Amino acid sequence: MSNEIVYKVLWVDDDKDIVKGTQLDAEEYGIQLDHYSNWEEAEIALKSNFKEYTAIILDANCQIKPNEPIKEWFITTVLPSLTGMFGENKRYIPWYILSAGTMDNFSFIVKSAAEHHLTSEWGQMVYLKEIPDEDPRRSSSKFLFQNIERVAKTQANNIVLYRYKDTFCYMGTDKLLSELARKTMLSMLTALYFPENYTNYVYEGNPLRKVMEYVFRAAYKVGLLPQECIERDDQINLLESNRYMSGMNTKHSLLRYGKAGTESDGRGGDTIFPEYLGHITKAIIEFGSVDSHTNEAFPYTIDDADLTLTENEKELFFSYVLQLCHVIKFFGKFVDQHPDVSANKSMKKIVGSISANISDYEGKIFPIEQDKNGNCHCGDCILNWGDAKDHVGKQVRLSNIKPNKKENTKKQYPIRAFKFDLE
Q: Tell me: the pLDDT tens digits for 39-76?
């Protein structure tokens, strides 16, 4: 399911024996079951992350508090709390009952619960744990998950998740970008497409910067950003990080990604972000407070009051939100194509140093390449153009290698082979 939309569903059931199997069954429908064995703990999770949940599944016979006896009137006890949260958040979350259905008062409880259930919009309310999928009542957990998947596609958050599934597939628990980045992006995009659900939404620049910081933090974990771009208190230096990933020389640590280009700031050589994307990320970073940073332990401790925009400026805010979607998608694909952390780290170069050792090239065989400026080279070693231009693509053995002293090429190609033999 790594490239598909994932629906997060709160599930309350005290039967530990069925948890793993049911969670695996749900995954086949793109459903992540967030399981709790009692209502007290589930209620805390729901209040803290109300907007994250797509649906709620309740056992009919369960615990209210940990280590307490199972309560047969569990559903009727829980429903008032749910109704209150729906009112506070001005949003319903579809809920369902998944139960063995063997308790004496089960029919009465179902009848009472049905008065609060929006069956016409949410579909069938009650499903049974132990009946086969072939049962004509279509009440097995398989049909529950199918129904949740169907209903979820009509909800605002999930419509956004579907529209931007190529972006959100890189965010969340155990994904490239953290769950906090996912939560922030989902909130911003839902406010864009469904403003009626976010009548009091505050347009501010800091969330955009925070997501960019999580992009850089992810880059560090996969070896695409050096330790030197992280300052005291585990804070990311945003502009230094952006320069490094945009193929430019950093100003403070004097590092760069890969070979430098011919421009004074190192552009035109190896890069993670192409030039247009580096301009976008720099604009996002500069849109907001210069004091915004995140760290792993305390990611949301910044006062954003001075970043609030007016209603008339919201188009500017949302333009950056959409550009940030593209940044995340591009970065995710780049990481997919460069999964070797050690190889990524080896691309860190010191500005102005000879990044190639003569001994690595002397007497060795390489193919002749030609860059966009017409220079013929073998890796970091440049060749005499007149000798090499007719042999591009051929394998040659290099010899008589010395430091490259030509000002216009020595930054990109620090060594020069004065002789080569065709193999």
A: 999 999 999 999 889 999 999 888 899 988 877 789 98
Question: For 127-139, what is the mean pLDDT?
Answer: 80
The pLDDT-based confidence of 161 (bands split at 50, 70, 90) is: confident
Judge whether 309 and 205 are in contact, CB under 8 Å.
Answer: yes
Name the nearest CA neighbour of 272 among 253, 296, 250, 246: 246
Q: Specify the pLDDT at position 297.
A: 47
